[in-house]
Amino acid sequence: MVVLASLVTANIFWIFNVIPSFATGLLMLCSWVVLGAVNFVTSFNIFSTTTMWIIIGGLALGAAATKTGLINRIALKVMSYLPASFRGQSMALLVSGTIISPMIPSAHPKTAMGTPIAKGISDALGYKPKGKGSSGLFMAAIWGFLVMEASFLSATAQNYAFKGLLPIKYQNVLTWGNWFILMLPWTILALILGYLLLVFLFKPQDDTPVSKDFINKQLTEIGPMSRDEKITAAVILVAIVFWILGSSIKLEAAVTALIGVSILVATKVLSPDDFKNRLSWNTIIFIGTVMALGNVMQSVGLTKWLYIVLKPVISPILSNIWITVIILPIVIYLCKFVVVSMISTGTLILLCLLPFFPSMPFSPALLILIITTSVNIWMLDYMDAPVITGQAAVHSSMVSRAGMAKSSLGYMVINIIGLLASVPVWYLMGLIK
Hints:
This protein has helices at about 1-15, 20-35, 40-45, 50-70, 70-80, 85-100, 105-125, 130-145, 155-165, 170, 175-200, 215-220, 225-245, 245-250, 255-265, 270-275, 280-300, 300-315, 320-335, 340-355, 365-375, 385-395, 400-430. By secondary structure, the chain is mainly α. The protein has one domain. Helix 1 (about 1-15) runs antiparallel to helix 2 (about 20-35) and helix 20 (about 340-355) packs antiparallel against helix 21. The mean pLDDT is about 90.
């Protein structure tokens, strides 16, 4: 009851942003110790796990990619290959965002970088602020740089946070390579249907290609690849290869990331000040406090209590994978109207389902995939913090509220379609009984 009371209180603080989220999380963990629910080692155990170190290492690699300009170069290069029209550049934003996603495990810098690029393209194409063309390019940037991060384990820290809530035996299913394969049908459909949706909703009447001067000028200004860019690109590519091969070569993903970071420091691509200023330490601490919930809830018996209370409602949803991939996303969509934080929403849902893991006819690891794709909606302005960041980066001058709502509703439908298409792959990989 102590753990449950502190969890409820923490969620009220998170929903209404009473104090910074990481401070609320730390107070929650401390309250368990002070009130005698668990000891310090149990409460703060998560901070000694590999999950926390892969988050720190991944964020540092992403900081290097952003600092050196590598990310900006990749995005502009992709755009230079496609026509300077709404169709061409919306596709370019989708593709470049998807390519960049696994390199930066944080949504905010990606949207902060992607939407100004979209703004420059919109201005070059002569689109009116908040018109169809401008709204469509903004949403293409959001779709590519934010939505598609669900395709890769390393694309966002929240994927590691959700994975960290699972018991170890289920975590081992979600290696970098397995995650990519499990999500491949969803990825393909999200890209194709997302592109068709944006074209249907936002394509201007006159979509004649214009000059690519804007893009070419940007590429000319940044010049050839610098030494730091080349080193960063090499380190990230090697890291991704080792993440894919991690289970077969028995090398922890966290070790790969930290070796990569050490190389970047040794070659002076990253400095000590970069660690202080470019890594979001408050986010890292917040994620750690959230991940601590799973272990503590089990240790005090709260999961058994939740199982008894929730069984009549949840058991039918989890009785069949086809039902789960339809109903669970809808439940998450409704929760997002109340619990704004994506990590908080996903954590609450997963903790409620935790007691049902042993009786489920499929691997609980699949719940992580469903949750991570479903928490990312933006029906209303306040519902998605990275989208708010993207809006702020262009001074809220690109997309209309109606455009936001329509594209979010379209994504919510496409997400369920993509999850349904993924079920046969999950069967083939032996994750469904």
